[in-house]
Here is the input.
Amino acid sequence: MYYNGFNVNLIPPITTKLLKMGTSSSSLHELRDNKYLQQFSGKEPISPNDPFWNQLLSFTFAPPHSCSDCRLLEDSIRPMLDTLLNSNPVTGNVVALIKVFLVHSSELKAAVLCDNKVFIWQAYNSLFILRCILKYFIETLGEEGTLKQLEDAQQHKSDPSNASEPEKLLEALIVALYEIIIDMSLDTKTYAITVEAVHTLIVLLSVQMFSSRPASISTVYSIVMQGQCANRSPLLVKTLLHHYTTQQLCPHCVSAGEGGSLIAGFASGLWSVLTLNYGSKSSQKDATSVTVLANQSLLLLLVLINHCTNEKEMKNPYRAALFSFADSNEISFEETLLVFKYDYNALFKTICTTLKDDQTALLAYLLLHQNPSFRHYIVYSSEISNLVVPLLKLLYDAPDKNSHLIYMALIILLILSEEEFFDKQVHGIKLKNIIWYSERMLSEISLGSLTVLILIRTIQYNMTRMHDKYLHTNCLAALANMSAHTQDLHPYICEKYLNLLENMGKRYLRIMDQSKTEGIQINDELMPTDLMQDLSVLDEVLRMLLEILNSFLTFQLKNNINLLYTVLYKKAVFNLFRPASNFQDIMQNIDIVLAFFSPQIESLEQNVSVREVTELIKSTSQLWSKDKMKKLPELKFKYVEEGQPEDFFIPYLWSVIFHSSDIYWNSKNILIFNPYKSS
Here is the structure.
């Protein structure tokens, strides 16, 4: 028969006698001596229609659930893989296995309709074995060497003129995987093979992890980005988004009695395979893994989106699909072959509830940055706090998070802050009992005040610990964007802002003094050894902090009485900046404000309450006119992606997959990032 233009032979149907082989599950220590695996990796070629395949694929083996499980499995079968590496170019048994899988995959829909669990189970087994082999080949030989392993040795011997090229066989395999993911209904019987199809695609695309060449010249990526795969790209993106959004739990194991006509022991083992056996897990870590299809679908989606981004080299249809899909709740929009519709609200809710890891942050970033329609929906959502609060918590937990995740959280906030509606609405959203903020009890605070607080805290953390220019630049840019619309800042945040100014100002003057004296040893552990570089950074940060304060007072003075109170109370802080010529232009407006309000405060009797002072400031502010101040342009910053985004995103993405995909990767030959270095 022909499958997608590729000639494959049917294998005989499984027999009752062979079923009995499945009654005893294989264990890791038995794999090394398994006679069928030894025959498969041996020196004799096995035809695709040989009954051997029924025997090889009739095993019940609980699939690995974690990276450590995968490593144990690979260690057990490594001798077989090493042997296969040398024998396969002669026998062509891997090509034969691919043909066997293609036959199974072509009949999967019918098997599902007929509730043929045994057939689905064998299809899963064939794909699982194939994935392990392909992964080993890619890690050991790279893409070019793997393609050589897919040359049809048997066909070359019997009929060289009809021998198919490895690229065509690989395309047939990838198309079959797409069909499993897109076309097959997802239920308890098909969950495992759907996960395995996603895993296998990730493994095939991992050729990039072991290559220094761009994906645009990769055979695997050329297949995926063009032809039949490209035609199905909108449907694949929609399906992967759906798997991620629904967060469907891995089916639980059922009692042996539900196994139908098969004997109880076999039925139980078979069901464990088909449901990935997650139902028997009880630990907290495993509990988070029961959404394995959602997690792996998101990783696959991110791989497809972030490669081949330069359209001059090769168009990426997956990016086009993700960046243009519309809201299914919008009746006016009609779905087309190129642009699909999906439920924005459901996707938004899932992003909010899972925004704890790199992959979710990457998806949120891509959608906000590149899909204008989805971005508009998010910005105008009445539940925007459900997105912003998790982002702020990520920043609050910065010491425990990797730097890339902190960058992504900040960039998302910066993108949101570019929208005037967002900057206005966050100050009207009240939050209660922010329990994760442990430095002070915040019984009630606006989302805007909390955002300003966490950004201030992140700047302070960066200036004393990380010394990362991009980190504080993004923080300051977000604060600046929000400044013209910031209202009713919480007293605690006002105090934190002035304290940051004071601490940075004192440090600036201290370094200025020390930089004038040569040969002084710097004992302050917070100071970098390069004084001039530190001075330049401090100058930049202080200037921006003063400009942001200027913006607060210029555009929202009457709506920021708490801030005005703190500025007047701590007016001595500004003595740090007046002598410096590079701050005098910014200090001009602040001094005008101080000159207007200070006499009113000084006229009060001593021992007046904070409330009385606040009321006086409030009444005096009604006499204030912003015409007194020097007109300055509104601060506006816009996030712009680097000219070569792949240089950042591809190594970052594969490091995320390396650490979080539950697939064990042999790090020996990884080229695009250092697997031993945390992000």
In short: Confidence is low (pLDDT under 50) at residues 8-25, 253-271, 278-288, 518-528. The first helix runs from residue 16 to 19. The chain is about 60% helix and 0% strand. The first strand starts at residue 2 and ends at 3.
